[in-house]
Amino acid sequence: MRTYEALFIVQPEAAEDLVQTIATGVETLITEDGGVIVRSEIWGKRRLAYLVKKFNEGIYILIRFEAETDIVKKLEGHFHLNEDVIRYLTVLFDEKALRLEVEQAARNEAQLEARRVGGPSADDDDERPARAARAERD
Question: Would you state the pLDDT for residue 138?
């Protein structure tokens, strides 16, 4: 199984229950084919960089999942046939990207823990030379 992320945009006039139904339908398509949903987020309505099918806004939905490679073709066919989906993109996450994401999450957690305990964080260490240089100038 490989890790993918599907980002798709639903037309802005779509009702909230329709958006939820579309997202659930995509999740069902993935799980029925043996995939596993890792994360599913509805980002809400956002402005588009340019007009897409005469819309300048859209409702963004992101789904990260693990599945076999044949699901991508089925998923994109599903998006293509759904008139409410105005744009979509499916991306494969390679092992290096996933490893970097886990490392970043661990660093962020360590910084949060350091702040909770009251100790110096990595950001504080990076700022000390700059503070010293500013103090010498002043």
Answer: 55
> Over the range 93-127, which residues count as b (16 or more CB within 10 Å of their CB) and which as e?
eeeeeeeeeeeeeeeeeeeeeeeeeeeeeeeeeee
Q: Tokens 């639903």 — which residue?
A: 10
* Residue 85 shares a structural domain with residue 37: yes
Write out the DSSP string of 45-100: EEEEEEEETTEEEEEEEEEEEEE-TTHHHHHHHHHHH-TTEEEEEEEEEPHHHHHH
Query: pLDDT digit string (tens) for 5-14?
Result: 999 999 999 9
User: What is the pTM for the complete model shown?
Assistant: 0.70
Domain interval for residue 104: 97-137
